[in-house]
Amino acid sequence: MKIVGISSSPRVKNSNTLKLLNAALEGAKKAGAEVESIDVAKLKIKYCIACDKCHKTGECSINDDFPALLAKLLEADGIIWSSPNYITNVTAQLKTVFDRCPLVIHEQLFDGKYGLSLTTAGGDEIDFILDIMNNFMIQCGGCSIGGVGCSMSRGPEAIEAAIEKSREMGRDLVEAIKEKRQYPEQESRHKAWREGFKYSILANKDHWTHNCDYWIEKGWIKE
User: Fold this and answer.
1) Domains of the chain: residue spans and CATH
2) How far apart are CA 158 and CA 199, in angstroms?
3) Structure confidence by residue, pLDDT tens digits, 125-134
4) Of 169, 178, 87, 171, nearest to 134 (Cα)?
């Protein structure tokens, strides 16, 4: 079993969010998973240019570090997303990664994968940031087991508690993968999304050839 942790703070080793990620990966490792931490703030990932090549061919037209990152995400059984709160959002580094994932969303490539989200903030805007990352995981066809957040204004006791909870959630992520845990509400969202998005696929079937072939192969649409 492979768990990939994504760090996205430009503060690098000084990141408080990284402390949560390291704890979650530690918990996952102790539960028996192989783990890897990837700092996307150190990678060269350019902006999506909406060229549609990924929808046509299944490959991105941009030559940078993103394809290698995506390959690792697709090989993983679980993904831990982490980002500090930057102006009530994830960091630009993580948002750029999300923006480069239209193929993942169109083809629901995280189907069968499980995710966990982590964040820190100066104030109390925690849940909104966790929701962004959890919703992205679900939008890509995966399931989210939840998240851990910490308001740094609450003092050192709060970060220590969040670190311990992150460690526990890392262990639980492994258990969710092992038992193929079901989340009926999230599965209903997947079904509803496919039912609605199939009309976009059909409307673009002569243009989004890779997407269309994939949907036919999965049995989501008919030839």
Assistant:
1) 2-181 (3.40.50.360)
2) 47
3) 889 999 999 9
4) 169
